[in-house]
Amino acid sequence: MNATEQLAAWIQESSRIVFFGGAGTSTESGIPDFRSAAGLYQTEQHSPYPPEELLSRHFFDQHADIFYDFYRGKMLHPDAEPNGCHRLLARLEQKGKLHAVITQNIDGLHQKAGSSHVLELHGSVHRNACMDCKQFYSLHDIMQSKEVVPRCSSCGGVVKPDVVLYEEELDQATLYHAIDALSSADLLLVGGTSLTVYPAAQLITYFQGKHTVLLNATPTAYDHRADLLITEPIGEVMKGVEQLIG
């Protein structure tokens, strides 16, 4: 039995699956990750500001114009489509087998594929709000804004994406629901994440179920915890799993 067949077998016998994913989940949809050789942090090394600085709260507050130039140019991919991983997870949810997707991604592709039980640890580019009056703005609104820094049409306040920047805390309710889902899962699928971003990476330690499967192109510090390691592209692997489970 190869790795894809083993994964398919464990999915078939499980009833409370949780998926914990990162940027590598969406690379096959054309969205660059952060830390790989071709990732955002590597390709931006010659910028006057490192990405960690550009994506910090203090930088947003002081240089919203530079932030938005980077954000629009590098982090928004409105035309991206779900890949085999997103689609299989949505199907498993529809079958009642998958109980939560916990994602570090902000692209909304899990919802686009049809998943509804999605816990977005780092927020979403699809939600934006005026920092003063809290009026909501969509991703389309941000993309269509003619201003470098989008401003509220009601009060003129700065519109901020609902994404967790460096120096900001994760939403506590989302964390609570993620811990609850992991604690009651019988199969944990960890995909497309280096497991180096904290506190998100620590969440998988709450899993006490039967099997952990880690799908990532490069080694992680949690490899020794996994019952199955898969390094092939996650979208292709999940497409193969879907064919096996019918």
From TrEMBL:
Residues 1-246 form the Deacetylase sirtuin-type domain. Its EC number is 2.3.1.286. It is found in: Cytoplasm. Zn(2+) binds at residues 130, 133, 152, 155. NAD-dependent protein deacetylase which modulates the activities of several enzymes which are inactive in their acetylated form. Belongs to the sirtuin family. Class U subfamily. This is NAD-dependent protein deacetylase. It comes from Paenibacillus cucumis. The lineage of its organism: Bacteria, Bacillati, Bacillota, Bacilli, Bacillales.
